[in-house]
Amino acid sequence: MKLIDTHCHLTLEHFDNEREELIKELSEKFEFLFEVGIDLKSSKKTIELSKKVKNIYCSVGIHPTETENLKHDDYDEIEKLIENKKVIAIGEIGLDFHWDTDKKDQYIGFEKQLYIANKNNIPIIMHIRDAYTEAIDFLKTHNIPEMGGVVHCYSSDRKNAKKFLDMGLYLGFDGPITYPKNQELREVLKYTPIDKILPETDSPFLPPVPYRGKRNNPLYIQYVYEKISEIKQIDIEPLKEILFLNAKKLFKV
């Protein structure tokens, strides 16, 4: 059983100098990877990449910090992109109050894309940063797609983790679970049922130890697997099978 990475951004400029070489290596070592959209332009690029590479699937969506001054037509275009067979989710969508962007527009973007996901019966990939309470309150009053979804790069506490898990959502874990000071996050990982965990890199961001401070890439997912294996006390090979089946169940790949 090979590896999977359920959240990366290979179409970003960070990989311009070696994208083809890296993708060739990834194609040999991974069962599949999910290339995730962050705005309309990148969503189109994710589809283009997925069409070229058999084991790359993609999501389309508008990141919360990219929702300012968008028009209804922009969301209509996102919905049209779902028609491509390699699109497995709407995302990444959600709330991010870390950066100084219009919160009203973020809520509008979140609501519109949840509606699209529900209408088209497709899972969601959520980005939440410094807005966990607000996101939970929002989801309580809006329909989560029947297909479910994942809280990408989970970074809150056990209490909030339980609330998302009770909603039937998965939690994505990335390089930060390897950081020495992130014991609370490792406790969340320990608490989360193994059948609700997804492995991610968020490449080119959030590289794991020992690559912290450098550009991340999906090859480093092995360090995420190793930490999950250590904390959940499951050998790597059976863990690969479990995480593969988790992703397959949620995203129907």
From TrEMBL:
Binding site for a divalent metal cation 2: 127, 152
Gene3D superfamilies hit by this protein: Metal-dependent hydrolases (3.20.20.140)
Residues annotated to bind a divalent metal cation 1: 7, 9, 92, 202
Name of the protein this chain belongs to: Hydrolase TatD family protein
MF terms in GO: DNA nuclease activity; hydrolase activity, acting on ester bonds; metal ion binding
Cited InterPro entries: Metal_Hydrolase (IPR032466), TatD-like (IPR001130), TatD/YcfH-like (IPR015991)
Keywords: Hydrolase, Metal-binding
One GO cellular component term: cytosol
Organism from which the protein derives: Tepiditoga spiralis
Short name of one Pfam family: TatD_DNase
